[in-house]
Amino acid sequence: MSGTSKVGQSSVYEAGDQVNVPQSEIDQEKKDARFHEGKEHSHKALDSKDERSIANKLAREEKREKEPEPESEETKQLKKDPTLPAKMHGNEPSRGAKIDAQIQQEEEEELRRKGKA
User: Fold this and answer.
1) Which domain holds residue 101?
2) Are 87 and 74 within 8 A, CB to CB?
């Protein structure tokens, strides 16, 4: 028998079968795989099993408080006309929505009269 292996015949093994890959290469592959795993925005800010420190969580929340919340077009239009959602769905606006629209109109007239708008 030729070769250094004492198990089986040397013709059984191909070149590279018993070559060890350096640990640093394996570690790097694992890091790369973990970085690309998961879904976008799947991390919950207040996850109890999160491994971030309390200081990091507090810093993130302070940063979020300073960020303005984006308003959708629907929200912007709703502020202009409270009866809009019902009209968009082909329904008659509720009594409360009609009253809100009336109050809003009166306030706008009052501001115009005072010269502030």
Assistant:
1) 81-114
2) no
